[in-house]
Every structure is written in C-alpha cells, then in structure tokens.
Amino acid sequence: MKTPLITPEGLEKLKAELDHLWRVERPDTTQKVAWAASLGDRSENADYHYNKKRLREIDRRLLYLRKCIDDLKVVSYSPFQEGKVLFGAWVEIRNDRGDQKRFRIVGYNEIFDTKDYISIDSPMAVALMKKEVGDEAVVKTDAGEFVWHVTKIEYQK
Length: 157
Fold this sequence. Notes:
alpha/beta; elongated
C-alpha cells in the first residue's frame, strides 16, 4: 500500500501534467483520430488505430491523476521537522565501507524520473524515519540487513 503523501513541489508537477494532458495532448490526439477516421476504411488505418490507443492511454492517465490528486495529502515543511528524518527530508548517509548516498524521502508519485528521490514506503526510508544525525539505521531487505549512519539532514523551506 502506498502512503498517500506528497510534497508541494510534487503536487504542482502532477497538476502540470494533468493540465498538459487535458489542454494539449488530448485535443491534439482527438484531432488526429478525427483526421484519420475521415480517410475512410479504418480497418487498416495505422494512424487511426495508433491515435485511438494513445487517446485511451491519455484518458487512463487523466483519470488516475484526478483521483490521485484528490486523495493525496500535501506535507509542507514545518520547523518541528528539523533535526529528524521525516517526510520531505534530504538525507545523507554513509556505511562502514565508506559508501555515501544522498536522497530525498518523498511520496510514491514523485520518485519517477528523479534518481535521487526515494519513496517513503521503501525499506531505506522506513529504516531512517525519525533518526537524527549520528544515528544508525538498519535497513532490512530481501538481500539482507545493511547498516547506514545518518550524516546530514536538510529540508527545502
């Protein structure tokens, strides 16, 4: 189950995608379907079939985005978060081998197309929740347990 949280920036990104799909891509694709249909025989009309399929994909995504946006809870920065790893935090961690990582803990809908964001539902985020600088987090995965040390916590304000 995905935790229905999102940052203000993530919500704006989803709203921008919804707006673009509704105002730009859907009308353009609808126009292409109408043009392809006007050519006559649709049974072997690749433009018609491709654009009808694309229109269904757009409509599916629009439906998902509308429902998703309505169900999400926006979590903005609050001063009480300082010093602890909570939703929206940029976290730097290090293990005993010297490996370092830096990422932001965000909602599931924000992790795509961004290599340094992880979901709040991931094993790493679960292990790091409420930790402070200097704390040790044990991350449990199918591959085993891994120990990481929190070295820095920041928030976008």
